[in-house]
Amino acid sequence: MISVLILTYNEEVNLPSCLASLTWSDDVVVFDSFSSDRTVEIARAAGARVVQRAFDNERNQRTESLQVGFKHPWVYNPDADEITPPELRDEMLQVVGDPRRPEAAYRVRFRVMFLGKWIRNSSLYPTWVVRLFRPEKVRFERDINLRYVIDGREGRLRHHFLHYSFRKGLSEWFRKHNRYSDAEAREAVKALRAGGLDWRGLLSIDAVRRRAALKDLSFRVPFRAMLIFVYLMLVRGGLFDGPAGWTYCRMRAYYEFLIGIKVREHQMRERGIPA
Questions:
Q1: Which three-class secondary structure state does DSSP give residue 5?
Q2: What is the pLDDT of residues 60-104, one digit of tens each?
Q3: What element of type H or E holds 107?
Q4: What is the CATH number of domain 3-163?
Q5: Burial of 77 (C-beta count, 10 Å sphere; 0-12/13-18/19+)
Q6: The pTM is what?
Q7: What is the pLDDT of residues 116-136, one digit of tens each?
Q8: What are phi and psi of 185, to 5 degrees?
Q9: Which of 184, 185, 186, 214 lies closest to 198, judged by CA?
Q10: What does the domain layout of the chain look like in residue ranges?
């Protein structure tokens, strides 16, 4: 069997569907940041074990969540706005039940659902994220959009989960990404101060390393938001995702625009110039 870990804060809209797709696990832990809505009530009603900790940053929160004690050696770690289809469940149970496999963690692809459809091209599909792992083999880097560091080999699963990141509404998406852009801007300033760039990483066959190198490069180029929009629409084929994809591309470009102007704000303040 597999234990399940879900980190939450005010997820009463998303959590019921997420939990309904996880009834196959007999050890579901909801690690909550003292939600002010019905998140905890919903979790307990579904039979989940609830542990609460005040949130300081994502890295510390996730690190502490791995210390709660799990019933099983493998942990599946979906977000509350993710749904786990039966085919992914079956594949996970199969790989963890095979003692011959050497992997310490597995990455999974996901389908971003927006305005009633899967936006395959605009969402940078396929993006591989760590979701299944042995908790003692995992640590984290960065305070936002974490990088998972795995002590051991990684594998990849064939099936997907569904990501409903807009279920709370567009206003919540913009509020969340405004917060994210603060942290991303701080990380960008650190990267720019450090200098250097992982040039080899830009051509790496390792998708995770290549993605990190491209992100660092993007901090150094002008017209960041416009280039992201063109890249998503034309290079990645967002044009073929229809109106939902076009809207998503504009929203992603706006997020990158926020990061860019906040980096500029940090740099001005460091020189004593008011924004």
A1: strand
A2: 999 999 999 999 999 999 999 999 999 999 999 999 999 999 999
A3: strand 103-114
A4: 3.90.550.10
A5: buried
A6: 0.84
A7: 999 999 999 999 999 999 999
A8: -65, -40
A9: 214
A10: 3-163, 170-270
